[in-house]
Specification:
With 280 residues, the chain is an alpha/beta fold. It contains nine helices and 15 strands. A nine-stranded mixed β-sheet has the order 4-3-5-8-15-14-13-10-11, with helices on both faces. Strand 14 and strand 15 form a beta hairpin.
């Protein structure tokens, strides 16, 4: 599956082995699909393994009948790359760790108590998105592209004004994994019409929302009455609006496959893709 210029995914190479020459795959342009839309998904970060994300999104795109190319190469995001696609999906945060870290639990007492802790660099993240990349996303949507920001991609807004302008909000934080309910607050929108409430055991993301409240589609609530950092038990769970000639969707659920494959949430994601592409 061609991702960008000379980058080809291992999965497509494996599929093509024995049936097509490698040179033929390398020579095919990812955007050459006539009038049929194609999606690019930028996935994976320190806290979100791209393998499980791909497993979940594969199911979504198979069921809606849209081919998708995956990439973890955040530094390859550009206008040239995006012009090959009609839908851009992001499920990753805005951080990279150029000096390394001890592991996913490096911020806990377990790792900090290592006898040779000084042998390891401090885990300090830096932002990866440049304003030029943010402008590329903004211009892509303005010109008519579809943009689907999922889960922790609101974190990127903390480091890019252009990205935040088109995405519509920014990450605040989340409590540990725990059950919460998600419900539609706009039940007339094509994405949410007839969609029932559902409960997931997931990260309940809290986000600052910048646009008109009329575009908010979803609300999450901890029905056990648990607060998060004085932000209350409820949080905005998603929105959708037109931006320029394109469309933007954000949904906040998505830290685990358990949540991503909840039947109602799965339908929500499929509809979000279809609405963003003007299929519904």
């Amino acid at each position: 599956m061609k991702l960008a210029d000379n980058q080809v995914s291992r999965r497509r190479l494996l599929r093509g082995a024995g049936t097509a020459a490698g040179a033929g795959l390398l020579g095919a342009a990812a955007g050459q699909m006539g009038s049929s839309p194609r999606a690019l998904a930028l996935i994976g970060d320190r806290y979100h393994n791209p393998d499980y994300i791909r497993v979940s999104l594969d199911r979504v795109f198979k069921e809606v009948g849209i081919p998708v190319d995956y990439t973890i190469q955040y530094d390859g995001l550009s206008r040239d790359l995006l012009r090959k696609y009609q839908l851009f999906v992001v499920l990753r945060d805005g951080m990279i760790w150029p000096n390394g870290y001890l592991g996913p639990d490096a911020y806990t007492a377990y790792a900090q108590a290592l006898e040779n802790r000084r042998d390891f660099p401090e885990a300090r993240p830096v932002s990866w998105m440049t304003e030029e990349q943010g402008a590329a996303v903004k211009d892509f949507v303005t010109a008519g592209g579809a943009f689907y920001a999922m889960h922790n991609s609101s974190h990127i807004s903390l480091s890019s004004k252009n990205y935040r302008e088109v995405m519509g909000g920014a990450y605040i934080g989340h409590p540990p994994l725990r059950p919460f309910k998600v419900r539609a607050v706009n039940k007339q929108h094509p994405i949410t019409r007839g969609l029932g409430e559902f409960i997931v055991n997931d990260e309940q993301h809290y986000v600052a929302y910048d646009k008109d409240r009329k575009y908010v589609l979803l609300e999450s609530e901890n029905i056990d009455g648990l607060d998060y950092d004085n932000h209350g038990t409820k949080a905005i769970g998603g929105w959708a609006y037109e931006y320029g000639k394109g469309r933007v969707v954000f949904t906040a659920v998505g830290h685990t496959n358990h949540a991503l494959w909840n039947p109602v949430h799965l339908e929500l994601v499929k509809r979000s893709v279809q609405w963003a592409l003007r299929r519904i």
